[in-house]
Each structure stands twice: as structure tokens, then as C-alpha cells.
């Protein structure tokens, strides 16, 4: 990828099975960008995120994410692409049977970390970034919903991703906690990691005005309004 570009889609068509969900998609996200992704249910937000993390193949046009050419992405490349992306999704919650520390270690081992000291250091480092260093030994059920979401963000930061993809990260949280989580994601973007958040929560978008991408009528509008 050239310069600061992290995601670049040009003239891409996105299919789910044989159904054309989005056509002629153009999308450009740079290092440190903080971007909202909106659109009605079924408009294609998840499909667009899936293109970026290599779960839906693209046809037509050109697509790049995290330095990978999405048109040439082989199955063996997908885990490496995903290490460049931090994923914060509702269906990717913490493992409830182990401590915060062990949740983070589990992901590190699965992504090739072997040195025990480095694993411990990185665990504390990412927990520090989300303000939860003191909770390292706790079990997930001992944390509030907002704290658990912070740990999910810490986990997404482990491999120093170029972008965080978050799908409804505040879906289960009260308004104040939602603001704290978005504030944290905003700070993360200011330190250079881009952040793309899909949400239906217009209140939170108004609280943190930033670029809005909208899926509508089979198209992606790159600079939309609420
Ligand atoms: N695996 C699939 N197979 C076939 N069609 C699918 C599949 N996944 C999604 N679709 C269809 O693609 C379209 C876009 O769905 P998508 O999940 O991307 O929307 P969304 O904007 O993320 O919706 P929501 O806000 O409800 O999460 C819908 O018409 C949906 O029915």
C-alpha cells in the first residue's frame, strides 16, 4: 500500500451469494482516520466490513486492505490480513471460562507469539492503553459491560493493527459507557490506527462528529450526512 492508505476500494462490486449487495464501491481510508459507517438494516454494512477482512471476495474493480490485494487474496493469506485489522464485533466476545490475561494470551498464541516475557509485557501494555491494567487477573464476569468491551478493544490492539473495524461496539452499553468507549476509539485513531465503526446509534455520531460513510440503495456514499 502506498503512503498512508490503509483501505482502498475502487469500482468494487460486492455480492452475497448471487445477490449484488453493493455496486461500484469506492472507499479510501488513511492512517489515523476515524470514520462512521451507517445505513439501514440490510443495506450492506456488514458485507462491506467482510470485504475488508477477507470474508467476502470482491468482483470488479480493485481492492486493497492492510497491504493485501483483495482480488488476489488466498485462503492462506486471510489470517495474516486479519492481524493487520483489529476486529471488535458483537459475535467475537471474551471467552468466559478464563481470566482477562488468559483471553489475551489465547489470541497471542494463536497469532504466533511464543516468548512468555513478551506475551506478559504486551498483555499489560494493551490493558494499559484501555485503562484496565489492574484487571489483568479478573474473570470477564467480574467486569462491567463497558470494561469487557475495553478488553475486547485491548485484544484487537495486540498485533498493532493498521485499522480497527468495529461493528456496533456500543450496542449493549448505556449512553455514558458508549461515549467512553467511543472516546477510547477516538484516542486510538489519534495515535495512528484508523478506526471504522458501523453503528445505528445516531446520538453517538452526533457526540463525535467525523466522516460518515453510508450504505444506501446498493451504493456506498463516501462522504455522507446523517
Ligand atoms: N450470507 C449471506 N447470503 C446471502 N445473502 C446475504 C448474506 N449475508 C447478507 N446477505 C444479504 O446481503 C444484504 C446486506 O446484508 P448486510 O448484513 O451486509 O447488511 P447490514 O447493513 O450489515 O445490516 P444490519 O444493520 O442489519 O447488520 C441483505 O440483503 C442480506 O440479506
From TrEMBL:
Q: Which BP terms does GO give this entry?
A: cell division
- Write out the GO cellular component annotations: plasma membrane
Where does the chain cross the membrane?
none
Name one matching Pfam family: ABC_tran
Q: Which part of the chain is the ABC transporter domain? A: 7-226
UniProt-listed Gene3D superfamilies: P-loop containing nucleotide triphosphate hydrolases
Which GO molecular-function terms appear in the entry?
A: ATP binding; ATP hydrolysis activity; transmembrane transporter activity
**InterPro entries documented for this protein:** AAA+_ATPase, ABC_transporter-like_ATP-bd, ABC_transporter-like_CS, ABC_transpr_LolD-like, P-loop_NTPase
Supply the alphabetized keyword list: ATP-binding, Cell cycle, Cell division, Nucleotide-binding
Q: What does this protein do?
A: Part of the ABC transporter FtsEX involved in cellular division. Important for assembly or stability of the septal ring.
Q: What's this protein's family per the entry?
A: Belongs to the ABC transporter superfamily.
Q: What is this protein called?
A: Cell division ATP-binding protein FtsE
Amino acid at each position: 500500500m502506498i503512503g498512508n492508505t490503509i483501505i482502498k476500494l475502487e469500482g468494487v462490486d460486492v455480492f452475497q451469494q448471487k445477490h449484488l449487495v453493493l455496486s461500484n464501491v469506492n472507499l479510501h481510508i488513511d492512517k489515523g482516520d476515524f470514520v462512521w459507517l451507517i445505513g439501514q438494516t440490510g443495506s450492506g454494512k456488514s458485507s462491506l466490513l467482510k470485504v475488508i477482512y477477507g470474508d467476502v471476495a470482491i468482483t470488479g474493480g480493485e481492492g486493497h486492505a492492510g497491504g493485501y490485494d483483495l482480488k488476489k487474496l488466498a485462503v492462506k493469506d486471510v489470517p495474516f490480513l486479519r492481524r493487520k485489522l483489529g476486529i471488535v464485533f458483537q459475535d467475537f466476545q471474551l471467552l468466559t471460562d478464563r481470566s482477562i490475561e488468559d483471553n489475551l494470551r489465547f489470541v497471542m498464541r494463536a497469532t504466533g507469539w511464543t516468548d512468555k516475557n513478551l506475551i506478559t509485557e504486551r498483555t499489560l501494555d494493551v490493558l494499559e492503553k484501555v485503562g484496565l491494567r489492574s484487571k489483568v487477573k479478573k474473570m470477564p464476569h467480574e467486569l462491567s459491560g463497558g470494561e469487557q468491551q475495553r478488553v475486547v478493544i485491548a485484544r484487537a490492539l495486540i498485533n498493532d493493527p493498521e485499522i480497527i473495524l468495529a461493528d456496533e461496539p456500543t450496542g449493549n452499553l448505556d449512553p455514558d459507557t458508549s461515549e467512553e468507549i467511543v472516546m477510547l476509539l477516538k484516542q486510538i485513531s489519534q495515535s495512528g490506527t484508523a478506526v471504522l465503526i458501523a453503528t445505528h446509534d445516531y446520538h453517538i455520531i452526533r457526540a463525535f462528529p467525523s466522516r460518515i460513510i453510508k450504505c444506501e440503495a446498493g451504493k456506498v456514499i463516501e462522504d455522507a450526512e446523517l
